[in-house]
Amino acid sequence: MSWFVRSKSNIEKKELKEMPDGLWTKCSSCGEIIYKKQLEDNLFCCPKCNFHFRIGASEYINIIFDDNSFFETNTEVKSADPLNFTDSKPYTTRLEDTYSKTNLNDAITTGIGTINGKKISFGCMNFNFIGGSMGAVVGEKIFRAIKTAINEKCPLIIISSSGGARMQEAAFSLMQMAKTSAALSELAEAKLPFISILTDPTTGGVTASFAMLGDLNIGEPGALIGFAGPRVIEQTIKKKLPNGFQKSEFLLEKGFLDMIIHRKDLRTKLSSIINWF
Amino acid sequence: MSKVVLDFEQPILALEAKIKEMKELSASIDLSKEIVDLEKKVESLRENIYRNLTRWQRVQLARHPERPITSDYLANLFTDFEEIHGDRKFKDDPAIIGGIAKFMDKSVVVIGHQKGRDTKSNLYRNFGMPNPDGYRKAHRLFEFAEKFNKPVITFLDTPGAFPGIEAEERGQAEAIASNLLLMSSLKVPIVVVIIGEGASGGAIGIGVGDKILMLENAWYSVISPESCSSILWRSWDFKEQAAEALKLSSFDLKEQGIIDEIISEPIGGAHRNHTLVFDNVKNAINNTLNSLLNVSPEKLVADRRQKFYKMGVWNE
Fold it and tell me: Cα–Cα distances in Å, from A274 out to A118, A277, B63?
């Protein structure tokens, strides 16, 4: 027998009014409710606080390349499962789920296009594909993008957003750090520029290889960039991290980024930088 | 038996204790037959356990506190070692040591992760977890070797690059990345030996070479089994499964084409017989080095790059 008895009936659930999904979104930084179309027109930056939303390759291609100039390459390079890896679910299932969820081939999109008429070999990572993790496919596509830059004698631009190496490919993923860096040493010997753009978030094996090796390292405002993730550091040192730690502005202050460029200026600035070379 | 006993070695220890007890008793009663029987049993048990080590058990052996560490190889395989401390930028990082030495009368540069032997020395060495300064010291030594046309030998043994505030402030990622770039175009031979733990970016930060040698019970992967378990299984309890899934043993990596040669260890692990391990490692380095010394710098660099370009499996 319980001591307390409910005397009144529960609050009744009322049918919610029909609201079309996906028209509005909330800024995860300032909480502003933004009309989606307006966000898109503002290149996915919050009109109130300038927070840069995470976007993928197709959006960046629209933002920086001349209209209809971009041609995607190596779309057929797909992940294998050399280790037969299974954690909570098999790697192959995880891949299949991600293909259908994201409509992407892997965590990077590569190709060639023009910015103000200048040819560029380009790669852009997709964070929503298994955390933008680098496995053999990302490594190979970056390797080919570098080779394209060398063959076409044009600059290389890579936009990174990644949690690091892909655990499901274990040591193979780790070796992509060496593979991409080795290919960049060939690009350097050819005296061709590599512009690395680091967006939110770029951590782990991607930061510790090609992403930090740009002739110019450019950050987007407020992007998290580091080697270890903030949670790992907090667990290790058992302290809270200071505000703004590992953000673009912090890296600029410490000398690891050369500049921070707002997304709305990205195309014009890249164009003028490329013209310098 | 070593002072430190790993969980899977307990049955051996129990039997050995029993034999000892019986030997003491045998002064009054004749137990020689039983003792011989038990000794045979211990031997077969030992064979059975050590010949069928799981990947996680190998990880435990790789971390064994009595396992030879970089300084032991320096003392036993090299002569005239002079430690070079300076990174010429910020500070001396005790988690990476390096310097000049003679290896079988050849002048070489040696670089390695340095763990400690006990709590005090481990705190000093930061458990072999380098800060950016360690990688920059290595960077300087790589350039030093190239300038004077001497081969480099590196020893890998780290639980990872240190994840700390200062490490991030001073560019841990940039320090590792710069080393990868430099090592992939260095015009002198680089021989890499994985002697214990090869954890992720912290290991490969001094691990790009012409030939990668690996001790039988060392491990090398993108992440430690514990961290992998915590991320993919969302719990620390799946380290055994994670170690299996990562396929991180020397035999796995040889099959994957990531390492070139496995250096065998005495039964039970490298800590059982240091001298034997030093001999095996010395021979392996000597053979490898001799095969690289007559290769032209251009071919050396081109082959090294090709070696890493081939790594990875994909469908097309």
Answer: 8, 6, 50
HSE-up of residue A54 (Cα within 13 Å, Cβ side): 16
pLDDT digits (tens, 9 = 90+) for B184-196: 999 999 999 999 9
Distance from C-alpha of B138 to C-alpha of B208, rounded to nearest angstrom: 12
Clarify whether residues B99 and B21 are in a common domain.
no
**Cross-chain Cβ contact A254/B169 below 8 Å:** yes
User: How far does B11 lie from chain A, in Å, by closest CA?
Assistant: 31
Burial class (CB in 10 A: 0-12, 13-18, 19+), B135: buried
A82-95: pLDDT as tens digits: 999 998 899 999 99
What is the tally of structural domains in chain A?
2
Q: Does residue B240 share a domain with residue B119?
A: yes
Q: Are residues A44 and A113 in the same domain?
A: no
Of B164, B171, B241, which has the smallest distance from its Cβ to A254's Cβ? B171
Distance CA A129, CA A83 (A): 20
Quick one: pLDDT at residue B188? 98
Question: Residue B205 belongs to what domain range?
Answer: 62-309
d(CA B44, CA B286): 35
Residue B30's pLDDT is: 82
Question: Under DSSP, is residue A224 helix (H, G, I), strand (E, B) or coil?
Answer: strand
In three-state secondary structure terms, A198 is strand
Q: Which residue positions in chain B have pLDDT lower than 70?
A: 1-2
Contacts of B171 in chain A (CB under 8 A): 212, 254-256
Which of B158, B180, B223, B226 should we substitute to test contact with A (largest number of A Cβ atoms within 10 Å)?
B180
Instruction: Look at the pTM and tell me if it is higher than 0.80.
Output: yes
Query: In which domain, by residue range, is A35 found?
Result: 19-53
Which residues on neighbouring strands pair with residue B155, listed in sequence order? B112, B193
Q: Are residues A139 and A233 in the same domain?
A: yes
Q: What's A84's domain CATH number?
A: 3.90.226.10
Number of independent structural domains in chain B: 2
Paired tokens of B85? 């401390």
Spans in chain A with pLDDT lower than 50: none
Size of interface A-B (CB pairs under 8 A): 196
Residues B23 and B89 in one domain: no
Report the residue from A171, A175, A232 with minimal CB separation from B308.
Answer: A175
Give chain B positions within 8 Å (CB) of A232: 163
CB B314 within 8 Å of CB A75: no
Nearest CA-CA distance, residue A183 and chain B, Å: 8
Question: Do A205 and B256 count as a contact with CB atoms less than 8 A apart?
Answer: no
Q: Peptide bond before A20: cis, by omega within 30 degrees of 0?
A: no
